[in-house]
Amino acid sequence: MQPFIYHIGTQGQPWREAEKQQWLAEQRKKRAYQTDVVEMLPALQTDFAVIQYGELDYSALGLGQYPLFILKSLDWHPNKPVALVTGGVHGYETSGVLGALRFAATTAKQYTAAFNVLIVPCISPWGYETINRWNPLTVDPNRAFVANSLSAEAGLLREYLIAQGITPLLHIDLHETTDSDNSEFRPAKAARDGTVNSNWTIPDGFYLVGDSENPEPAFQAAIIAEVANVTHIAPADEQGCLIGEPIAQFGVVNYPKRVLGLCGGMTAARYVTTTEVYPDSPSATPEQCILAQVAAIVGALNFVRGKCAEQMPV
User: Which stretches are annotated as coiled coil (predicted)?
Assistant: First the structure.
């Protein structure tokens, strides 16, 4: 199979500033963060404090400014465990953003007695508007949750959690795997880095990415079981893999999250997972994708709540 050659740059040579600027010039706004996300937040103030934790300022690039928001449950108590839900690390992964908002609007209040709930619905608003994986500087936020981050999207949230002294017990990060991973984003990454792209088979169905340093298989299995009530779980390919990784258990692969700078590795949470919804499946509707994200959060919270109850003294 011949590698897909991207239309920007010279094969084998990493992009310089000229190629990055060419890529940025091709991007177009396709939907509105203000309408789809920001204007949804006031209706959630019955159950959450809406806190602006930062602002992305891309005005120097002619792209404007984007306020960043976190939802914090009102009945916050220092003795309760913290559950963190993040969406929109990759702005093009739509159900992550809409699933976080749907959870906040419908189901989250069922868990605020047991947890301090934090929801970050859209970490990468420019990526959401332009349906992109990267930020305008061609940086992938989900490889940048590290100190001195090159991604303001990642750095601002990480710095907020550190400044507030927030250490979640549970962190679930909402993502999608799309057909455009193979048609656009992986070829673009190879071109940017001056490498050769090899596409992987896109899994048809939902799966999870656990943390190889802290896999918590029972936790992952509980989420898979809950999501299976809403949509189908991706089977492994002929090599026993999902996205090129050997499966750790049904519907689950593991990555070294902290080493890779992934969102799921930015805290010391014991229970961590990344959801991967497949919105291009002929067997899933956009609504099912949103409901699958909500189901994943519910499955995670139910499992951890049960574990906390087991540990309480009689």
Answer: none
In a domain, 7, yes or no: no
Q: Please identify every stretch of the chain with a pLDDT value under 50, giving residue numbers as ranges.
A: 1-2, 314
DSSP output for the chain:
-PPPPPSSS-TTS---HHHHHHHHHT----S-HHHHTGGGSGGGTTTEEEEEEEEEE-GGGT--EEEEEEEEESS--TTSPEEEEEE-SSTT-HHHHHHHHHHHHHTGGGTTTT-EEEEE--S-HHHHHHT-SS-TTS--GGG--STT-S-HHHHHHHHHHHHTT---SEEEEEEE--THIIIIIHHHHHHHHT------PPPSSBEEEEETTB--HHHHHHHHHHHTTTSPBPPP-TTSEETTEE-SBTTEEEE-HHHHT-GGGSS--SEEEEEEE-TT-TT--HHHHHHHHHHHHHHHHHHHHHHHHHHS--
122 phi and psi angles, rounded to 5 deg: -150, 95
- Residue 309: its pLDDT value, please? 85
* Best CA proximity match to 307, nearest among 177, 219, 239, 241: 219
For residue 203, give the CATH number of its domain. Answer: 3.40.630.10
2 located within any domain = no
Residue 115 covered by a domain: yes
pLDDT at 158: 98
Range of the domain at 168: 17-311
Q: How much is the pLDDT for 4? A: 63
- Structural domain total, the chain: 1
Does residue 63 belong to any structural domain of this protein? yes
Rounded alpha-carbon distances, angstroms, from residue 201 to 220, 242, 243, 269, 277: 22, 8, 6, 31, 15
Q: Report pLDDT for 2.
A: 47
